[in-house]
Amino acid sequence: VKYNQAQFITSAPDISKLPPDTGIEVAFAGRSNAGKSSALNTLTDQKLARTSKTPGRTQLINTFSLGEDQRLIDLPGYGFAKVPLEMKKKWQKALGEYLQRRKCLKGIVVLMDIRHPLKDLDMDLINWAISSNIPVLALLTKADKLKQGKRKAEVLQVRRALAELNGDITVHAFSSLKGIGLNELAWKLDEWYLGP
Ligand code: GDP
User: Fold this and answer.
1) Is the CB of 51 under 6 A from ligand 1?
2) What range(s) does the EngB-type G domain occupy (predicted)?
3) What pLDDT does residue 168 have?
4) Is 176 in the pocket of ligand 1 (CB under 6 A)?
5) In degrees, to the nearest 5, what angle opens at C-alpha 39 toward C-alphas 159 and 20?
6) C-alpha separations of 138 from 10, 113, 132 in Å
7) Ligand 1: which of 51, 110, 139 to mutate, most ligand atoms within 8 Å of CB?
8) Which residues pair with 62 in a beta bridge?
9) 130, 169 Cβ separation under 8 angstroms
10) pLDDT computed for residue 57 by the predictor
11) Full-prediction pTM beyond 0.90?
């Protein structure tokens, strides 16, 4: 799949405004500031997603086309400290609906800062995905911030913790800055879009 040919389709305020539920979608999700926009931009070699957005703005589901009925989905970041409870609930509902109802969703990439992974909302998301039989690729972002030994230890620890959930979960270190894990990301996406 040629990720550098990704093209913006639309920004949807909720799942009813998404493109038709056909073909294959892969969604990116993570706490705000986890490095999701940077990962999407690095993968596609384009400035697709805005980095470091102001928290609390209208949260939209951004969709990008990769070709014949293959889409990348940029789900709104979660976990903003200052967002009102109402908005949090709304977002959780939209996320839950997307995960549970979207038939073309083939896999979800969950981005977590390698220095503080597996927060409550990350676990909610991963558990939702597993209970909906959606494979998960967990990317431990900003891996360049840790020395190699610590980085490997962190990956192993997250792998061990997630293995207990008995789902289809893959864990890799990732850095947009240094290109760490970029091949692993593209291989997993290729598997989801094209089959094993
Ligand atoms: P988003 O809110 O999840 O979309 O996160 P962004 O992509 O906007 O990144 C949040 C912050 O983390 C920004 O200041 C980025 O420059 C920084 N960041 C993102 N990826 C990396 C990375 O691979 N390494 C380092 N050191 N910083 C990163």
Assistant:
1) yes
2) 22-195
3) 98
4) yes
5) 95
6) 25, 10, 16
7) 51
8) 11, 74
9) yes
10) 52
11) yes
